[in-house]
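Help needed: design a sequence for this.
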């Protein structure tokens, strides 16, 4: 992909990363769809995440008028740890809590986020809901993220059917919500949402070009659902929590296979859709 340039026919693609475009070796083994891939993240010399070579190659084919915008629950530090095979002008991190423009947080969005979460209890109150449960077998460790939200590393096999609704209810009473995502359980304040940051960015692009860009989105988890709902076309990988939960809006496509093969199909269809667009 060449340097991005904003035109009247620009396309904004807001794409979740983990379990949508990139996968840990452990997730790949579980989801299938293995393809030749390259590492994009190491910790202490160990490969944590990979991207399929064909995904990188298809991203290279996207025309410059396409803005590929990572939209992740990762914090900025966790996002910056990735060595992605493409450059991006805009990114959404911390589940919508941060909008990066050329690598720097957009201060007007920071102020808007603070305004949006004022109705929710402070982070300490939500984190206490996790620390109070530190003795439960499913709760392995808990963390605070970017002073915006918190999450736990969980053992999903120990998480019985009552625990999650009970925790979600406790969260609801303080203006928060609990959202599981594989081995992570996120506690998010109401108002902190990827789709809010996506809408902010689309409006920013619209203000610059005079026209709302076409919007594609891809994601695998419940935190991505509303972002897919506002997209012109959305993609969900087969075998993902969203594909299994179903009830997806009509513009959302589920891939044929999961894992890296699902990612390859998603990115291949981005290229096809953008080229079809050029012929109209
Ligand atoms: Mg994901």
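Sure. Designed sequence:
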């Amino acid at each position: 992909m060449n340097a991005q340039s904003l035109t009247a026919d620009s396309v904004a693609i807001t794409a979740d990363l983990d379990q949508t475009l990139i996968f840990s070796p452990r997730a790949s083994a579980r989801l299938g769809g293995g393809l030749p891939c390259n590492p994009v993240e190491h910790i202490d010399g160990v490969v944590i995440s990979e991207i399929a070579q064909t995904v990188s190659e298809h991203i290279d084919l996207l025309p410059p008028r396409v803005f590929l915008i990572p939209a992740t629950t990762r914090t900025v530090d966790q996002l910056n740890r990735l060595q992605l095979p493409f450059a991006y002008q805009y990114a959404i991190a911390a589940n919508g809590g941060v909008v990066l423009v050329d690598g720097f947080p957009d201060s007007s969005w920071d102020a808007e986020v603070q305004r949006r979460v004022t109705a929710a209890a402070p982070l300490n109150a939500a984190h206490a809901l996790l620390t109070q449960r530190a003795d439960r077998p499913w709760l392995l460790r808990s963390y605070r993220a970017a002073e915006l939200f918190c999450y736990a590393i969980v053992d999903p096999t120990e998480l019985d059917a009552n625990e999650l609704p009970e925790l979600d209810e406790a969260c609801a009473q303080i203006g928060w919500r609990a959202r599981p995502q594989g081995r992570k359980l996120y506690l998010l304040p109401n108002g902190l949402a990827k789709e809010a940051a996506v809408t902010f960015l689309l409006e920013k692009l619209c203000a610059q070009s005079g026209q709302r860009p076409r919007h594609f989105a891809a994601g695998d988890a419940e935190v991505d659902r509303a972002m897919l709902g506002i997209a012109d076309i959305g993609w969900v990988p087969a075998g993902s929590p969203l594909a299994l939960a179903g009830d997806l809006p009509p513009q959302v496509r589920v891939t044929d296979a999961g894992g890296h093969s699902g990612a390859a199909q998603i990115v291949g269809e981005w290229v096809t859709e953008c080229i079809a667009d050029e012929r109209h």
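Residues 16, 18-20, 220-221 surround magnesium ion (CB under 6 Å).
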